[in-house]
Design brief:
By secondary structure, the chain is α+β, with helices and mostly antiparallel strands. Helices cover 40% and strands 10% of the residues.
Length: 81
């Protein structure tokens, strides 16, 4: 996804902005044991709620016209560890 986003951002600029969302732990599985294993790996120690995903998407849809080729990780910091 990262390579495609960057490649498209270069190819389509300056007329089209290309950015992406990389989603992490959003909705917990129905089995409570899986929840604990996943959340232990997330620095924020919780699931994202749909409002946080919506806010990130709205930001990208309304972001300044000079941001392109970026990926916003909405994963509670999991991509950092």
């Amino acid at each position: 996804m990262a390579t495609m986003t960057k490649s498209m951002a270069v190819s389509l600029a300056p007329k089209i902005l290309v950015n992406g969302l990389a989603l992490g732990a959003i909705l917990p599985p129905s089995d409570g044991t899986e929840n604990q294993d996943i959340i232990k790996k997330v620095p924020m120690k919780r699931w994202a709620d749909k409002g946080e995903i919506e806010q990130a998407l709205i930001f990208l849809l309304t972001c300044p016209g000079y941001i392109t080729g970026e990926i916003i990780h909405v994963d509670g910091g999991r991509h950092l560890v």
